[in-house]
Write a structure and sequence with these properties.
heterodimer; A: mainly alpha; 7 helices; about 85% helix; elongated; B: mainly alpha; about 80% helix
Chain lengths: ~220, ~220
């Protein structure tokens, strides 16, 4: 049994807990915005949502170092050999930032960390986007065009993630008001609007994840 | 990009939505058995759980014909060429059966259909397990040993589904009693024991299907 097989398995398991788990997040979000449910029921659903959502949040960060390991196994990665621990360290630090930002999201420190997390994502979108386009144009730094296309998909997925975050901002405070003051048409409208606006980004993200998986499976030459 | 890649992609998606969606099912169930929540909350969580639970059910049905199709492409399937339409026909009938059981839940017809479904599953487990073991002990029913192991694991997964159903049987009446007459320690115990027993089989099921994925990805020869 080679390491490549084990990395491929981990890569697949990450997709399971990203794309598969996201379905639960999506369905539960639609139940939460229904005014006919009791405040307790809606608060409990939010707990469920928070728990399930933790999986995509975590695996999406570690997808990158695992992908790099796989690419290295095929001799296609610009990061290789003695440098392979670097993406892991970077992912661990990023995960620590993203995790604490989410855990302390109501505190000023949490808000600061969320900004840092957003900056990391923006930098990654830019960096990965530039590297993948450079590969199409000049044959590097990635060793194959299909890999560059996958990386480009990942950059677009990160953009969708940022879109989800930004459009979902009004949800938290509105849900807080719902719990504190009860249901009002205004609060309900804010909750529904936040979920409705997130949907296109979520669907685009799922589609891109599927495309990325299909590219990884078929590894087309172009 | 070849047809085989699309089948492989579909096979991957059945795994993603089987195991990934199960996460939401598993976590929601913890709230259903928690008597400190209002009945309405528990009922809503059960509804959420039941909706999410349909996804793995369909994924399980779809994964077998898609897997056979993949094996057919690799020339290691006992079912191939002209007789393959039988497999698809079987799938369509089975999907219709499972859909009707879900739609008519609580009726006599659903109970009869559920019995037919159970018998079919039992036959499937026996056929798959016997052919897999025969194949592993020398008669080349499946073209490779790793495929025979996967088939055996699939049979075990369907077997786990049996155990989940059996252990889950007291759950429905106990939950109905709690909804009707309120929470009693006796019914809560029944509910909890039933769910905890089923949850153990769910974890076994996850290990089995992850192992099946691992064999499919690494395709070890032994």
């Amino acid at each position: 049994m080679e390491m490549q097989g084990i990395w491929a398995f981990i890569h697949v398991m990450f997709l399971v807990y990203w794309l598969g788990a996201d379905l639960g997040v999506f369905y539960v979000a639609y139940q939460i915005i229904k005014p006919e449910h009791s405040p307790e029921a809606r608060a409990t659903l939010l707990k469920v949502l928070g728990f399930i959502d933790g999986f995509p949040r975590a695996v999406s960060i570690f997808m990158l170092p695992v992908g790099i390991q796989l690419a290295d196994g095929l001799g296609l990665s610009p990061v290789s050999g003695g440098m392979l621990w670097l993406p892991w360290i970077a992912a661990l630090i990023w995960f620590a930032i993203a995790y604490s930002a989410n855990a302390r999201r109501t505190t000023p420190r949490g808000k600061q960390l969320a900004k840092l997390d957003l900056a990391i994502r923006a930098a990654l979108v830019l960096g990965l986007g530039v590297f993948s386009i450079a590969t199409f144009v000049s044959g590097g730094p990635f060793g194959a065009n299909w890999l560059a296309l996958k990386v480009l998909c990942f950059a677009l997925i990160l953009i969708c993630g940022i879109g989800i975050r930004l459009t979902f901002i009004p949800f938290g405070p509105a849900f807080g008001r719902l719990m504190a003051e009860g249901s009002t048409p205004e609060v309900e409208a804010t909750l529904k609007r936040a979920v409705d606006r997130v949907v296109p980004f979520v669907l685009a993200l799922w589609f891109l994840l599927g495309v990325a998986a299909l590219i990884g499976i078929s590894q087309p030459d172009f | 990009m070849e047809a085989h890649d699309f089948w492989l992609f579909l096979h991957l998606l059945t795994f993603v939505y089987w195991m990934g969606a199960d996460l939401g099912v598993f976590y929601s169930s913890r709230f259903v058995i928690n008597s400190s929540y209002q009945p309405a909350t528990r009922a809503l969580l059960l509804k959420t759980l039941a909706w999410l639970d349909m996804v793995p059910r369909y994924a399980l049905l779809l994964t077998l014909p898609v897997g056979l199709r993949l094996a057919g492409d690799l020339n290691i399937s006992p079912v191939s060429g002209g007789s393959f339409w039988l497999v698809w026909l079987g799938l369509i009938i089975w999907v219709a059966l499972v859909t009707q059981i879900h739609r008519r839940e609580g009726t006599e017809a659903a109970k009869t259909l559920a019995k037919i479904d159970m018998v079919l599953r039992f036959v499937l487990v026996v056929v798959l397990a016997v052919t897999a073991i025969m194949s592993l002990s020398g008669s080349a029913i499946y073209g490779t040993d790793w495929l025979a192991v996967k088939v055996l694991l699939f049979a075990a997964a369907v077997g786990c589904g049996f155990m989940i159903r059996i252990t889950f049987k007291p759950f429905g009446p106990a939950f109905a009693a709690i909804m009707k007459d309120g929470s009693t320690p006796e019914q809560e115990t029944k509910l909890r024991n039933s769910l905890n027993a089923a949850a153990r089989w769910v974890v076994v099921l996850w290990v089995i299907i992850a192992a099946a994925a691992f064999f499919g990805i690494t395709q070890p020869s032994f």
